[in-house]
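Hi all, posting the design record for the shared folder.

TITLE: backbone redesign
STEP: 1 of 1
STRUCTURE INPUT:
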């Protein structure tokens, strides 16, 4: 079936589009049903006193976040961020320029919270808060994946992701929450994971996986669940349990643990690493979702907590867990808490505990997509830029042919896949396809110049997003692989064989 929108043309070198005002004004995700909003403590529908409530919420956020206050006051309209957002580059809608996205909130801030805005609103671009403004916020704060690329280029470090989170939090507080994110948070609270996979179904899935993998590998590769006294609790996105190519990553982690002789376990209580509390801008929900991990770690008596391949989960774990659910003084102090699965594998490679048959990947030329949340909101290995170095070292350790995409599309400058920040939903498919354009352009370039056949990733959202949007650009969706799939396929499991 033909899509009902125009797919952007992949052009290299990329060009900044001519602006088309209102091009994406129609794009908005479904609003959550009343019961899903109420279950999270939000009003079920737009409240009668929404105007006062929204302003009160804005005041509360400004009072509690010095950063938000500074971001509202410090933009000098230099334009450095204007062409840095993948959603602007893919849609040409000027409201998707980061500075314009901030201004949606800033204009209301000025009207009600600054002297000039109160008395001379027309002079300072201040606007009244109306239902039309709320609608515009809902549309454009759901066209930002909170990826923080724009903030890298802002001379003042203004973080549009924080503005987007504030916008969404205000919207949720007056009864306009987003269906996709709110339903998922509800499922995690009720059942323990994004997919609503109940413990018996999870146990059954893991048993079947263990049988299949052990038979294929000729070695007893286990996928333990709720194993008391294991050394490691692995917390991973629930997509890893069966979706492709995610599950191949989980198989890779299991093979690494097996080969290194490290005992590990998953938890039915904390069977999800993803934390959509980040996407709705709610610290309260972020904390509640994260707390399951601490509870599971204590209950199972593990010594280490390891996070699987999930970009925003690692951002939450790395940047927030210590304050949300720390201290981790009950864990082994010889390891980082939390630890990323790439840190585990990298360390084992470094110590010579893993060996690979790299030739298994000789039919491939690999490139690597840096997930935005890992790239700009975390670290790995405790060294500057470790989040870029470790995954590439691992790929090079198990594959002979690796090339990077161009510099302004990787590392700190990486582009979001187009589906992050709670936007990985079919009601936003047009936005997702268009927002993927910069990554598709960079990928096209390395395919044409270096014959790249596969793109590895360490984020569940990126993998799902690429699987969905790549066919629109006539790429094979099987090009996307989990990093630990490359590891698992090349790993020599037999200790005597190296
Ligand atoms: S945070 Fe990312 S998605 Fe949001 S405006 Fe900046 S570049 Fe665009
Ligand atoms: S780069 Fe920073 S200061 Fe310049 S327009 Fe963008 S947000 Fe404003």
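Okay, here is what came back for every position:
SEQUENCE:
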């Amino acid at each position: 079936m033909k899509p009902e929108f125009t797919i952007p043309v992949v052009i290299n070198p990329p060009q900044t589009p001519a602006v088309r005002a209102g091009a994406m004004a129609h794009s908005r995700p479904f609003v959550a049903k009343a019961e899903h909003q109420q279950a999270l403590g939000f009003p079920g529908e737009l409240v009668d006193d929404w105007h006062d409530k929204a302003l009160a919420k804005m005041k509360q956020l400004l009072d509690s976040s010095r950063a938000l206050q500074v971001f509202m006051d410090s933009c000098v309209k230099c334009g450095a961020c204007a062409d840095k957002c993948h959603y602007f580059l893919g849609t040409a809608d000027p409201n998707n320029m980061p500075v314009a996205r901030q201004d949606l909130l800033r204009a209301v801030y000025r009207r009600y919270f600054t002297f000039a805005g109160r008395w001379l609103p027309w002079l300072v671009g201040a606007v009244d808060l109306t239902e039309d403004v709320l609608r515009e916020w809902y549309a454009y704060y759901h066209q930002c994946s909170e990826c923080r690329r724009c903030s890298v280029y802002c001379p003042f470090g203004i973080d549009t992701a924080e503005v987007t989170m504030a916008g969404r939090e205000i919207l949720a507080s007056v009864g306009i929450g987003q269906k996709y994110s709110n339903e998922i948070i509800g499922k995690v609270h009720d059942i323990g994971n994004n997919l609503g996979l109940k413990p018996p179904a999870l146990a059954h899935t893991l048993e079947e996986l263990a049988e299949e993998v052990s038979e294929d590998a000729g070695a007893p590769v286990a996928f333990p669940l709720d194993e008391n006294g294991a050394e490691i609790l692995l917390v991973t996105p629930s997509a890893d349990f069966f979706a492709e190519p995610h599950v191949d990553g989980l198989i890779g982690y299991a093979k690494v643990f097996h080969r290194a002789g490290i005992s590990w376990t998953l938890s039915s209580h904390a069977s999800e690493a993803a934390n959509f509390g980040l996407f709705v801008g709610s610290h309260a929900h972020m904390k509640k979702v994260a707390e399951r991990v601490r509870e599971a770690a204590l209950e199972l008596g593990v010594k280490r907590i390891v996070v699987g391949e999930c970009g925003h989960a690692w951002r939450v774990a790395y940047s927030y867990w210590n304050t949300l659910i720390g201290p981790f003084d009950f864990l082994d102090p010889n390891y980082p808490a939390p630890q990323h699965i790439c840190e585990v594998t990298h360390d084992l490679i470094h110590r010579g505990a893993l060996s690979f048959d790299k030739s298994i990947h000789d039919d491939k030329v690999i490139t690597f997509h840096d997930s935005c949340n890992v790239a700009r909101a975390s670290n790995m290995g405790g060294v500057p830029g470790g989040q870029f170095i470790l995954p590439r070292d691992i790929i090079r350790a198990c594959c002979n042919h690796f090339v990077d995409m161009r510099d302004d599309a990787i590392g700190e400058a990486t582009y979001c896949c187009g589906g992050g920040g709670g936007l990985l939903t079919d009601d936003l498919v047009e936005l997702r396809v268009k927002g993927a354009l910069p990554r598709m352009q960079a990928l096209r370039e390395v395919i044409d110049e270096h014959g790249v056949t596969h793109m590895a990733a360490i984020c569940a959202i990126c993998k799902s997003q690429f699987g969905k949007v790549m066919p629109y650009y006539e790429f094979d969706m099987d090009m996307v692989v989990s990093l630990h799939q490359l590891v698992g396929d090349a790993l020599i499991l037999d200790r005597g064989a190296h």
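COMMENT: The chain has a mean pLDDT of 95.
Let me know if anyone wants the other runs.
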